[in-house]
Amino acid sequence: MGVTVKYGSSAARVFAVATTAVVAASLVACSSDSGIDEGDSIEGTTIRVTLANHVWTETIKDLIPEFEKESGAKVEITQLAEDQLSDQYNVKLNAGTDEIDVLMYRPLQENKLFADNGYLANLTDQVEGDKEWDWSDFQEGPASLTTYDGEVVGVPIITERTVLYYRKDLLQAAGLEVPTTLEELEAAAKAIHEANPDVAGYVGRTGKSAAVTQLSAFLYSFGGDWLDGTDSLIGSDEAREAYKYYGNLISGYTNATVNPEMSWPEAFAVFQQGQAAFIADADSLYKNMTDPSQSTVADNVGFAAFPEGPAGSKPYNVAAWALAINEQSANKSGAWEFIKWATSKATSLEMAKLGVSGARASVWEDPTANADYPAELLEAIKVNGQNGVGYDRPLVIEVAKAREIVGEPIVVAIAGGDVDAAIDAADKAFGEFLLEDAE
C-alpha cells in the first residue's frame, strides 16, 4: 500500500532519507472508556494523520508502508508548514472536526491550550497498560510535558536539551578545566576574555522572548521557577539571582556592544566566527557548530552537561513535537496503533539510525543509534536528559505573551539597568497575567 500525502501550499523541504523496513509493534489487546479499543482490527480503515514539515515527518514517511502492510490500514497524511498547521488546528479543532485522527503538535506552546479545550484524547490507559511498548522508557522531562492534569495526552517524538558548547583551544591555553558549576563558568568566561580581549567570555540569546528559553536552565539551577499555579515566582530571590547572573555573563565579559535582539542564529554566529568562548543552547543545533562550512572553530568545539548552580544542574529537556489523538476522531483505535508503532522502541531506534533521535532513554543508550554524534556530546545529552526539566518557558495558554513579560528583566539585566525594578514590574504584570490566563 502507498502512503497518501496531502501537502500545504508552502510545500515541504524534502530530506533524502534511506528507506528501511521496521517491524510493526505487536498489538496488545486492552480496552478503556477512552474510546480506544486495541482488540478491534484496524484492517481496511484509513488513519488520517496531520504532520508538520519536519525532518521527523520526512523520515517516518519512508517507514509507514511497513506499518500499512502489518496493520492492513491505510495512512493518509496531510503535511503543512508550522504556520499553516497552527491555522488549521485553530479552525478545525475548535470546530470539533472528526477529519483528523492523529495530530503532530508542539507541547511547549499547545499542550495546555489543546488539553484545556478538550481537543486531545486521554491516552493514560494505553501508555501505562502496554509493558512492551514501555512508557517508562520515555525521559521524564518530555513525558511530563505531554501530561495534563494527571492525564497523558501526547507522546513525545522530538526532544532537545540545553548543552554547554565551549572552545577547547581557549580553555587549554588558559589552563582551565571544563566548567562543572556556574561559578566555574563565570570564572572561566572572565579569565578567557581577559586573556583574549577580542573574545567574549560567553554569548547567548538576548532577545526578550528568545532568551526566555535559555534563561530557564539558569533559573532552575538557581532554584527558581516561573510560576506556582496563579502565583508569579519571578520575583523570588532565586529568580533574581538567575536574571542578574545571566545578564552579567553575557555583558560583563566582552568588549563588544551586545546585540539586544539575538536569537540562536545570531548568537551562534558569534561563536562560529571565533568571537566567544562559551554558549549554552539547544543540543539539536550542534551541527551548526561542527560543520566547517558554517563554523570557523569546528575543530575546537567541545560539549558538556549544563553546569551546576546552587540547586544543581537543571537544564531544560523538552519535547519540541509530539503526537496526539483528536478527541473527536472516529478511529481512535487506528490512531493509537499508528502512534504506538511510530513511537515504539523498534521504530524509535530505526529513526535514530536515520538521524532523528527522540525521547526514549533506551535509544540514547544504544551505541548503534547515535554513532554520528560526538562522544562528548552524547555523554552530555545523557546527563542532561536525566537531570532535565520538561519545560523551558511558562506553561500557560498565551505562551507568547508570557514570554514577553518574563523576558523584559533579561533585556534590562544585559543592558546593565535596574534589574530589581524591572523584575518587580514584570513580577506584578506576570501575576496579573496568570490570573487572567486561569479564567
From TrEMBL:
Q: Where is the signal peptide?
A: 1-24
Report the transmembrane regions from the record.
none
* SUPFAM superfamilies with a match to the protein in the record: Periplasmic binding protein-like II
> A Pfam family matched by this chain, by name?
SBP_bac_1
Q: Keywords on this record?
A: Signal
Q: State if Signal is listed as a keyword.
A: yes
Q: Does the keyword Cytoplasm apply?
A: no
CDD domains the record matches: PBP2_TMBP_like (cd13585)
Q: Which PANTHER family match?
A: ARABINOSE-BINDING PROTEIN-RELATED, DIACETYLCHITOBIOSE BINDING PROTEIN DASA
Q: Mind telling me what this protein is named? A: Sugar ABC transporter substrate-binding protein
Q: Which organism is it from?
A: Homoserinibacter gongjuensis
